[in-house]
Amino acid sequence: MLQGAVSERRLSPTGCLGSMQRDHPSLAQLLALNRQIAFISHDLRQPLTAILANAEFLTRPDIC
Question: Which has the least CB within 10 A, 18, 40, 43, 62?
Fold first, then answer.
């Protein structure tokens, strides 16, 4: 009896759609997250580029 109820729920399109909507974020949420990640990575990239350039300069043997 329990197996029948579980298998019917799996086959039910409304049950599947409802669980998919709960389990997966909406497009608007993904776009907002993408914008935040892009903003943070841009802010980190600028100082890291300067650090990398200076580190490469300091590894040159001809500077004293």
Answer: 62
Q: Where does residue 4 fall: left (phi above 0), alpha (psi -120 to 50 degrees), or beta otherwise?
A: alpha
Give the integer Cα–Cα distance in Å for 16 and 60: 61
Measure Cα distances from 51 to 4, 18, 37 in Å.
63, 49, 21
pTM exceeds cut of 0.85: no
Half-sphere exposure of 58 (CA within 13 A, CB side): 6
